[in-house]
Amino acid sequence: MASISTLLLICLFISIIPGYANTDFINLKCNANSVGQFGQQSLLVCVIHTTQEVSNPEIRVVTWWKVGVKKPLVLFYEGKTTSTTGYKFAEPSWNNKNMNVSLLIANTEVANDGDYTCNVITDSGSSNSKTHLQVTAKYSPPIITTPKRIHQGADGFVICNSEGGYPKGQLRWFDEFNTDWTKSSEMVANKTKNGLFHLSSTLTLKSGSIFKYTCVVYNASGEKVNEANFDPDPNSGSSTGDGHEEPVHYKLESKVVAPVVVIGSLIVGLLITLLLLRWRSRKARRPSTAPLMGDHTEIPRCDEEGKA
C-alpha cells in the first residue's frame, strides 16, 4: 500500500514539473479534445512516441486521472492493472510493450465531461499529457401542447417541450413567414437526475392569432436538431404538427371580418346600381302618346263609305 502511495506522489510530481516529466526520448501525445455521446462508449486517444535512439521501450507505470477526482481511473504498476468500473485501456490485450495507452469509457455519462491527465513512466523516460472530453446528448423531437380550452377574446399560449439533451440547448419560435417570435416566449431549462436537460418554452398568443408557428430545438452549438409545427386555425378542428395534443379556438379579429363586410356592401351597391340603370333604360324606350293626338288624315271606316 505504501508503494502505491509513493507511486502516486511520483506521478503527481511528474505532472506538475514539465522539465522532469518530458525527456528527449519519450513524448506522450493525446488528442486535445474528444466528443462522447451520452450512453455510448467514449475514447480518449493517447499514444507514446519515442525517438530512434529508443529500442523496444517498456512501460513501467501508466496512470489516468480525471481532474477533480482523487482516485486514478486506471493504474498500471508492477505488471498489474487496476481500474475504476467503467474505465479501461482501449486496447483489448494491452501490455507494457504497447505504446497505445488510450482510455476507453464504457458508458458515457454527463459526469464524464471534463479534463483528463495521463502520466507514463518507461525505462527510457517519462511524459504526461492532457485531454478534454465533451459529452453530448441529442434532444428529443419537440412536442407542442395547448390548454384544453381558450376563451374567446382572451390571450392564449402554447407550450413546447424537448428533453434528453446535453449541454443546455434552446427552443425558438418562428411563424410561417420565418419571423422570429422567441422574444414573446419564456424558456425554462431544468436538469434531470442523469444530468440531461429538459427544455420547456411557453409562447404567448394574442387573441386572433392565425399564423402557423414552428418550435425549433437547437443544441449548445447553435445547430438545429428538430422541429414541430402548430396551426391555430379555428376552422380546421385540429392542429397540424408533431406531437400536438389539443385544438385551440381563437377569435378572429375585426381585421378579418371587416373586409368581408366591405366586399358584401360593394356587391349590394353594384346590384342596386344595375337595377336603376335598367329601369331608366326601359323608361327611355317607352313610346310617347303625343303623336296620336296631332293633325292626321283620318282614314274612313268601311261602314261610313257605304252610307256615302
UniProtKB/TrEMBL annotation:
One of its GO terms (biological process) is positive regulation of T cell proliferation. It is found in: Cell membrane. The keyword Ribosomal protein does not apply. It comes from the Eukaryota. Coiled coil: none annotated. Residues 18-136, 141-231 form the Ig-like domain. Keywords: Cell membrane, Disulfide bond, Glycoprotein, Immunoglobulin domain, Membrane, Receptor, Signal, Transmembrane, Transmembrane helix. It is a single-pass type I membrane protein. The keyword Cell membrane applies. The chain crosses the membrane at residues 256-277. It holds the Pfam family C2-set_3. This is Cell surface glycoprotein CD200 receptor 1. Residues 295-308 have a biased composition (Basic and acidic residues). One of its GO terms (cellular component) is external side of plasma membrane. Residues 1-23 form the signal peptide. Residues 226-246, 287-308 are annotated as: Disordered.
